[in-house]
Design goal:
The protein is an alpha+beta fold. Helices cover 22% and strands 25% of the residues. Helix 3 crosses helix 4. The longest helix has 19 residues.
Length: 272
């Protein structure tokens, strides 16, 4: 049996020719490629590796009987690690959002097989977080974040050879966007991130700065313990002290190359 994905040890599932498969996977990762071989391959400690196995290649709603940890925060208050938490079934998320509509909500990236969280499936699905850090507390540059998001969608489609049905884009409500990906075969997430950064670094219009930073102030990150809950409300205090609220909503991918940032913000803004 393979160890959970976060354990600081390596293990390989029992499969025919597994030594050769592991060797090929490691060669691919070392070369900046994506470690995709058969089913479950290998587990290494984060941040060295984050493997997404075949059983994790699903959308969250495809695991309705699994559990997630939910974190809640009153509108206008800063994020702290000691926020109230609850463990709920995935199928109960829409109702939970309605009940707690006056709070910021996050969910754990990892999902669990039981309410005690003793057994977990791991992170579901692949998520990339694109944020602009220009005056991030008040006025991030969403045009930059949106530009990088569209470039990443193009790169993901080519690298993973997937179509629109396997990619989702969510406006996080404030600093940027989330890209959710459902690949056809297992991947090593940090290797995929490396390929994306390499691909985007070759696009002059993205003005690569260094590492995961583009367009001067916009970043690409692949890993967060908590993810803002799609369908909830993102709320923060403006420079004047007023509470601003915007919806966290998913795009129709067909419209992402037709819509602009002003239209996105207008669609997300909640007027009380």
């Amino acid at each position: 049996m393979c160890m959970p994905w976060w354990k600081p040890s390596a293990c390989v599932c029992r499969r025919k020719n597994w030594r050769e498969k592991v060797h090929l996977a490691l060669e691919a990762v070392a070369a900046g490629g994506v470690g995709v071989v058969g089913e479950i391959i290998m587990i290494s400690p984060i941040p060295t590796s984050i493997y997404l196995f075949e059983k994790q290649l699903v959308w969250l709603e495809e695991k309705p009987d699994y559990f997630v940890k939910i974190m809640r925060q009153p509108f206008g208050e800063p994020f702290v690690e000691s926020l109230p938490t609850e463990i709920i079934r995935v199928r109960d998320i829409p109702n939970y959002i309605q009940v707690h509509g006056n709070e910021n909500l996050w969910r754990s990236w990892k999902i669990f097989t039981d309410q005690s969280r003793k057994e977990e499936l791991g992170p579901v699905p692949i998520i990339f977080d694109i944020d602009d850090e220009t005056d991030k507390q008040q006025n991030p540059n969403l045009d930059k974040a949106f530009g990088l998001t569209k470039a990443l969608i193009d790169s993901l489609s080519r690298i993973l050879q997937i179509n629109n049905e396997n990619i989702r884009v969510i406006f996080s409500g404030h600093k940027g966007f989330h890209i959710e990906v459902k690949p056809r075969a297992p991947v090593e997430l940090l290797a995929l991130r490396g390929r994306l950064i390499q691909d985007c670094s070759q696009k002059e219009e993205l003005f690569p700065v260094s590492g995961n930073q583009f367009l001067d102030t916009t970043t690409l990150d692949p890993f967060h313990n908590e993810i803002r809950l799609t369908g909830s409300i993102n709320s923060w205090r403006s420079s004047s002290g007023e509470i601003v609220q915007r919806k966290v909503f998913q795009f129709n991918l067909d419209e992402i190359f037709r819509i602009n940032v002003d239209e996105i913000v207008a669609k997300a803004t909640i007027i009380r």
